[in-house]
Design brief:
The protein is of the alpha+beta class and 254 residues long. The protein is built from 8 helices and 4 strands; from the N terminus they run αααααβαββαβα.
C-alpha cells in the first residue's frame, strides 16, 4: 500500500504544480511549457530510467537558461525577473513530480507483470477450466512416465485442437466445453488433462492400449456432439503412443 499512496501523492503534487504553472505563465509561454510537459510524459513512459532522468535535467537547465536569456535581452526589471523565477520553479516542480509519478507507475507495472508471470508458473489449474496448466501437466506427467516405464506399461497422448479458421471468438467461447468434455471422457484421478494453448488440449492416458485410447477419443467426440452440438469439422484430434524417451515425449506435448 505504501507505493500506491506515494503514487497518489505524487499525482496530487503534479496537478498542483501544473495549476501553479498555468497561473504564472500565459500566452505563447504557457503553450510552450504545456507542450513540453505533455511530450515529457510520453518520453518518460518509454525511455529507460537513466535516459528519462537525463531528459529531465536537460529540460530544467534549458528552460532556466532560456528564461535568463530572455531576461537579459529584454532587460526585465526585478518584478519581471521574480515572475520568471516563479514560472520556472512551477515548471520544474511539474516535470519533476511528473517524472517521479511515471517512474513509480512503470516500476509498479513491471512488478505486477513479474508477479503475474510467476503466478502463471506456480498455478496448477487454469482459471476458466478445471484442467492442468502446461507446467503442472508436464510436472505430473514426468513422474507418471517414469513409473510407467519402470512397470513397462503402455500409454497414449490424445491431442485436441480447435481449428475453426477465422473464428477466434468462437474458439475462445467453446474452449470450456472442450475442457469439460475431456475431463468427462477420462478416468478421474488417473489420467491427466492439460492446456497446451488457448485452442489446444492434451490428454495423458496411462496404462492403456490403443483400443482403450480410441474409446476415450470416441467418448470425447460423442459428448461434444450430444451435449454441446459441436461439429467434428470444428476440431481435430490426434492419438499418439508414448515414446520410450522422455525428451521425445516432451517434444510431442510442446
Amino acid at each position: 500500500m505504501k507505493r500506491e499512496r506515494l503514487i497518489v501523492w505524487l499525482f496530487i503534487l503534479t496537478v498542483g504544480a501544473a495549476v501553479a504553472l498555468v497561473a504564472s505563465a500565459e500566452g505563447e509561454e504557457l503553450l510552450a511549457f504545456c507542450t513540453i510537459v505533455v511530450l515529457s510524459a510520453v518520453c518518460f513512459a518509454y525511455l529507460k530510467p537513466l535516459q528519462s532522468f537525463a531528459l529531465l535535467v536537460v529540460e530544467m537547465l534549458g528552460t532556466g537558461f532560456w528564461l535568463a536569456f530572455q531576461g537579459y535581452m529584454n532587460e526585465w526589471d526585478s518584478s519581471e525577473q521574480a515572475h520568471a523565477i516563479l514560472t520556472n520553479l512551477a515548471f520544474m516542480a511539474c516535470v519533476i513530480c511528473l517524472w517521479l509519478t511515471v517512474s513509480q507507475l512503470v516500476k509498479y507495472g513491471q512488478a505486477y507483470t513479474e508477479m503475474d508471470e510467476e503466478l502463471q508458473e506456480l498455478r496448477k489449474y487454469e482459471k476458466d477450466a478445471s484442467v492442468l496448466t502446461i507446467n503442472e501437466f508436464m510436472y505430473r506427467m514426468e513422474s507418471i512416465f517414469v513409473a510407467m516405464r519402470r512397470r513397462k506399461e503402455q500409454g497414449y497422448l490424445l491431442r485436441i485442437k480447435i481449428n475453426a479458421a477465422g473464428k477466434e471468438f468462437a474458439k475462445k467461447s467453446v474452449f470450456h466445453a472442450f475442457a469439460t468434455a475431456a475431463l468427462k471422457s477420462v478416468r478421474e484421478q488417473y489420467d491427466l488433462v492439460g492446456k497446451v494453448s488457448d485452442y489446444e488440449l492434451v490428454i495423458l492416458l496411462q496404462n492403456t492400449n490403443r483400443d482403450g485410447a480410441l474409446i476415450v477419443e470416441e467418448r470425447f467426440k460423442a459428448y461434444l456432439h450430444q451435449e454441446v452440438n459441436v461439429p467434428e469439422s470444428f476440431y481435430e484430434t490426434s492419438l499418439l503412443e508414448l515414446p520410450d524417451n522422455w525428451s521425445e515425449t516432451q517434444a510431442i506435448v510442446a
